[in-house]
Specification:
Layout (H helix, E strand, L loop, with lengths): L4 H20 L1 H9 L2 H13 L4 H14 L3 E6 L8 E7 L3 H6 L10 H11 L7
Antiparallel strand pairs: 1-2
């Protein structure tokens, strides 16, 4: 069975992180992976969140993430006029890839960069 294009891309991402980390440290590795990330995040997530509440937008993105092998739940935490959402990743297909490349937690390379890119792609949005 051949690997999906998404998994191939993630494998390359972890390999790049591992290589740059070894050469110049984690900060430079994150910097290298971040090039163009906000623009890609705006293109990918804008179709889901623009014109929707965050919860609705995130719910609409579930099928996309399912194609990546992620199993996620979305909980609407909106309260007192604040639009808020909690994304719960029940299954992360990138854990094995991270471990193959010596990265203890895939969140270092995936989730944390996603949040940072989202904040730049959608000014005013806060994420953690």
């Amino acid at each position: 069975m051949s690997e999906s294009p998404i998994m191939q891309s993630m494998r390359e991402k972890f390999a790049t992180y591992q290589r740059v980390c070894a050469e110049a440290g984690p900060a430079k590795a994150e910097e290298a992976l971040f090039v163009g990330y906000p623009e890609r995040q705006r293109q990918m997530m804008g179709q889901f969140i623009n014109g929707n509440t965050l919860a609705e937008g995130f719910r609409r993105s579930v099928p996309l993430f399912a194609q990546m092998g992620m199993v996620m739940e979305v909980v609407d935490l909106s309260n007192k006029g604040q639009d808020a959402v909690l994304e719960i990743q029940r299954v992360c297909p990138f854990l094995a890839l991270a471990q193959e490349h010596g990265v203890e937690k895939p969140c270092t390379v995936v989730c944390e960069l996603d949040v940072k890119a989202t904040q730049q792609a959608f000014p005013g949005m806060k994420g953690k």
